[in-house]
Design a protein that fits this description.
The protein is mostly beta strands and about 130 residues long. The chain has one domain (about 5-25, about 35-130): Thrombin, subunit H, CATH 2.40.10. The chain has two helices and eight strands. The strands form two sheets. The chain has a six-stranded antiparallel barrel. Strands 2-3 form a two-stranded antiparallel ribbon.
């Protein structure tokens, strides 16, 4: 039984799915200045549901001292946040203009916390990344 599919039908009636690109972290390499440069696998596109976080989750993330624009993302697949023993950073989610998403959702988002992980889908907390030169 695909419970995620049933729940998605209901939520999609009031909050449309959008198409996102998921880039799974493959670790890092060392840049010329000796700084870690994240590496990602090829982008995989698919439908996702972006929602606000509930109060309990916001309080949990607040205790982790994470600040910025944070949303919940439901997507088929096994998205991951930082996994230090494997030397992996968080996965990236890219929401483009063609996704049908409002402008405030467009851009790069870092997976900061896996909130629910099931065999075929994952609910994660994502953090909007700054754009431009760093």
């Amino acid at each position: 039984m695909d419970l995620r599919g049933y729940a998605n039908q209901a939520s999609n009636a009031v909050n449309n799915n959008i198409v996102v690109a998921w880039l799974a972290s493959t670790g890092y390499s060392m840049g010329t200045a000796g700084r870690q440069q994240p590496r990602y696998g090829a982008a995989v596109t698919g439908p996702a549901q972006v929602q606000a976080l509930d109060g309990d989750t916001l309080r949990h993330l607040d205790k982790m001292n994470i600040q910025g624009t944070i949303r919940a993302l439901y997507m088929y697949g096994s998205l991951a946040n930082v996994i230090r023993p494997d030397s992996r950073g968080g996965d990236l989610i890219v929401i483009g203009a063609q996704s049908g998403a409002p402008p405030e959702l467009q851009g790069q988002w870092l997976v900061i916390k896996a909130l629910e992980s099931w065999p075929s889908w994952t609910k994660v907390a994502i953090l909007k990344q700054a754009t431009g030169a760093q």
